[in-house]
Amino acid sequence: MGPGPSDVAPSVLMAMSKPIVGHLDPVFVKIMDETKTMLREVFQTKNDMTFPISGTGSAGMEFCFVNLIEPGDTVVIGVNGVFGTRMCDVAGRCGANVVKVEAPWGQIIEPKQIADALKTCKPKLVAIVHAETSTGALTPVEEISKLVHAAGALFVLDTVTSLGGCPVKLDAWQVDAVYSGTQKCLSCPPGMSPVSLSPRAMEVATKRKTKVQSWYLDVNLLASYWGQDRVYHHTAPISMAYGLHEALRLVLEEGLENRFRRHEQNHKALKAGLHAMKMEIASQAGHQLWQLNTVTVPAGIDEAAVRRRLLNEFSIEIGAGLGPLKGKIWRVGLMGETSKKENIHTFLRAFGKILNESGYAVNVEVAIAAAKV
Ligand SMILES: Cc1ncc(COP(=O)(O)O)c(C=O)c1O
Fold first, then answer.
1. What pLDDT does residue 218 have?
2. Which fold has domain 256-371?
3. For 10-254, which CATH class?
4. Alpha helix ranges (H) inside 255-302
């Protein structure tokens, strides 16, 4: 129940243990085609250039920036946690002039902040982290995307934690470049990064003046492998691709709307249980992630000691706060397969016991009853 990786369904683990075929074998090519089709459905896009990068979410982040940025380009990046900070680092390494739009950790990036930044510079792209895993805040992006396009820029979105757990609508929101991860709400082990580029982003990537500095992540080369040509580029991680194929099949079998509803209901249940324990969700009200719940550590409680006991005595993993939130919050993940009523009840029982024994009196039965509503 940490911030990812989440639990993995047995059928995904079984798929990953199947015999290895060649990465240009017709069986594997069929898996690649089906994976692309399913990813389009999960991302809610018609983008042809939709496939998984061989690498984790950070590789997807690099993929978007190395292909779209040329040295000297200006980019605007929303920074309200660890992953916006990482985007700035990556974009800076690509030679971009980075304009940061900052919000306190736990808060969202407001459209007005982006509008103000767009008055002072003319960026090639604007990038936002949809679901900030380090803080538990979900930034709504529809209005931001409109502002970005009105300014003639591309809109880049990090959906590592949002994809498969809450709505992500690439075409409706006009997202030009997106990356995600397999290990959060898709409930597959870490190892691949689903990405998608709009035709507008592809045009920018193919008409660059300079070569993409990363050979491995150059979309112009990857397109020949993941496209119809099937030209050898790198040896795809076959077992990971089997796993992702099955994980996506499970997402679509459940249905996107049902899956989102499950994540929302379980978030509400956990929150009700925590409230009954006099605990607060730390991220901005009205913009709290369903799949990653940040809980404020009450005064006098040793954050790390509680986490250690949960792990050692109950085999429950939750996450710590990062950066300015270190020691101040816990991060409780309810992602994909992990988002289950039984997990919430088991967690509340263990958490309540530890809190009581730490001198913070809570009524565990009342909390569990509240979480059952
Ligand atoms: C929002 C977000 N972006 C990017 C990443 C980086 O992904 P990875 O750790 O898979 O490289 C993470 C990882 O937790 C994340 O939560």
1. 98
2. Aspartate Aminotransferase, domain 1 (3.90.1150)
3. alpha beta
4. 256-276
